[in-house]
Design goal:
With 383 residues, this protein is mainly α. It is built from 12 helices and no strands.
Length: 383
């Protein structure tokens, strides 16, 4: 550096120099993240099925490992778990669809009766609407639908195209899941070869910690979803709300999207209770949902997820919001598992104990392996 430049640099306040150095580095990081997000968004039709396959692999891998431990060939173990997984999912969907079809006539009858009650209330209640006014509002609704027929038709065509994409994504997820279950360890070793040899063991350990965190998250979320579905189903059955099984299944699926999923599926259950059974029943269903959500947030999640995977509620809400904006429902579904994986992986990278940890000593199917040893010892001291 020449003398004039050195003199000028010395005259610049240190705070400004540090801020400038941090600023351009921050801009570089943001630009890199933007490029990554753009590429992932552009390849969403591939990334989302692969991510879903990874979640399913975290759920089914313990079963494959247990069968291999019983000396079942890995190919056979993978086939058995795939059949069990597809059989359970197909059976649940078939049962839900059949129950929904069976309960639909009753629901239509109750909705029709409720609509008649609402119409009578609009005539005799504070609104004091006449038959001509009600018919006029109905005609306006029909006219609006006819005027927007083109948009509705194009939306139906878009839905058909989306269904084709969904089927393609399901096939890709199924195909990817087979290889994750059969040769997941080999695939991960191939990925770690992209890193320099001197940091490869640290990356390997961090990746295994992250996948162990994902296994714990999927296990706990599935258990919480079952408890939520059973609790809400019992409440709906006692109150006498129709379509108990489909609504319970909807609650089960919604539980995999923390916070938001329970709100939306609960709103559907409350709405059906309001239409079919009246406001008192809807309030009781709302109370049941709030009780189940309190049980989930204060008892089930702390016990089942544990401190190794537990995330701060604010971090969960922000992650879901970002995922919802960036990727819609799929983004909301995948945001919290991604955050759990990054949390465990980063903690492993900055852990002194994991700097000497051998990758093969990390059991990715054990929940406690999602945290570095020093972190666990510190937690035990706190307790």
């Amino acid at each position: 550096m020449s003398a004039p430049e050195s003199e000028i640099s010395s005259r610049v306040p240190k705070l400004l120099r540090v801020s400038a150095a941090l600023s351009w580095r921050f801009v570089a990081v943001v630009a890199a993240l933007y490029v990554v997000a753009y590429v992932l968004g552009y390849l969403a039709s591939i990334v989302i099925p692969v991510a879903v396959a990874l979640l399913l692999a975290a759920l089914l891998s313990p079963g494959v490992a247990k069968l291999v431990e019983w000396r079942v060939p890995r190919g056979v173990a993978t086939t058995v778990m795939m059949i069990i997984g597809i059989g359970v999912l197909g059976g649940v969907l078939t049962f839900v669809i059949s129950e929904f079809s069976r309960g639909l006539p009753e629901l239509q009858t109750q909705v029709s009766a409720s609509l008649d009650t609402i119409q009578q209330w609009l005539k005799d209640g504070p609104a004091h609407l006449s038959d001509a006014q009600l018919q006029g509002y109905l005609n306006d609704l029909v006219k609006t639908i006819k005027e927007n027929q083109t948009e509705i038709t194009s939306g139906a065509l878009t839905t058909a195209a989306t269904l084709g994409e969904v089927l393609t994504g399901l096939l890709l997820a199924l195909f990817t899941l087979i290889f994750f279950l059969h040769d997941g360890d080999g695939i991960w070793k191939f990925v770690t070869r992209a890193f320099p040899r001197d940091v490869r063991p640290r990356v390997d350990v961090a990746g295994r910690r992250g996948f162990a965190s994902l296994v714990s998250y999927v296990r706990a979320t599935a258990a919480v979803a079952v408890v939520d579905a059973v609790g809400v189903g019992i409440g709906l059955a006692i109150i006498g709300v129709p379509l108990v099984v489909p609504l319970s299944a909807l609650v089960f699926l919604g539980a995999f999207i923390p916070i938001i999923g329970a709100v939306f599926t609960g709103a559907v259950a409350v709405l059906i209770a309001l239409v079919t059974n009246g406001p008192i029943a809807a309030l009781i269903v709302l109370a049941v949902l709030i009780g189940v959500m309190q049980l989930e947030s204060h008892v089930l999640q702390p016990i089942l997820l544990g401190r190794a995977v537990k995330l701060h509620p604010l971090a969960v809400v922000i992650a879901i919001a970002v995922g919802l904006v960036a990727g819609g429902i799929a983004g909301a579904l995948l945001s919290v598992p991604l955050l759990a994986v990054l949390n465990s992986g980063i903690r492993s990278l900055i852990s002194d104990a994991d700097s000497v940890q051998k990758p093969e000593k990390v059991d990715v199917l054990e929940p406690q392996e999602s945290a570095p040893p020093d972190d666990r010892s510190e937690r035990q001291k706190e307790l």
